[in-house]
Amino acid sequence: MKDLIEYIAQSLVEHPEEVIVKQSGGNRVRVELSVAKDDMGRVIGKGGKVANSIRTLLRVAAEREGKQATLDVTEP
């Protein structure tokens, strides 16, 4: 799941080298995504649409593994 979020985020941003993804938890996985300050708008999107789409993809990937997952977008 960490690799999925990292791949999506690096595809969206202008500074892919600054993408940091941290994953923690067992059955309830928490994924933290941090990007450059300039790229926050690209990851969140207008009205949070991009971030919600990423969360949906994450939930589907987690469900396939029998887990639950949440995504937090944090400021660097």
Task: Describe, in short, the structure shown.
The protein is of the alpha+beta class.
Sequence of secondary-structure elements: HEEHHE
Coarse structural class: alpha+beta
User: CATH homologous superfamily, by name?
Assistant: K homology (KH) domain
Question: What is the fold-level CATH name, i.e. the topology?
Answer: GMP Synthetase, Chain A, domain 3
Contiguous helical run count: 3
What would you say this structure looks like, in words?
The protein has 76 residues and is an alpha+beta fold. The chain has a single domain, classed as GMP Synthetase, Chain A, domain 3. The protein is built from three helices and three strands. The protein has a three-stranded mixed beta sheet, covered by helices on one side. A hairpin with a 3-residue loop joins strand 1 (20-24) and strand 2 (28-34). The mean pLDDT is 95.
Task: Please give a handful of descriptors for the protein shown.
single chain, 76 residues, alpha+beta, GMP Synthetase, Chain A, domain 3, 3-stranded mixed sheet, 3 strands, 42% helix, globular
Give the topology:
Elements: H1 2-12, E1 20-24, E2 28-34, H2 40-44, H3 49-64, E3 68-74
Parallel strand pairs: 2-3
Antiparallel strand pairs: 1-2
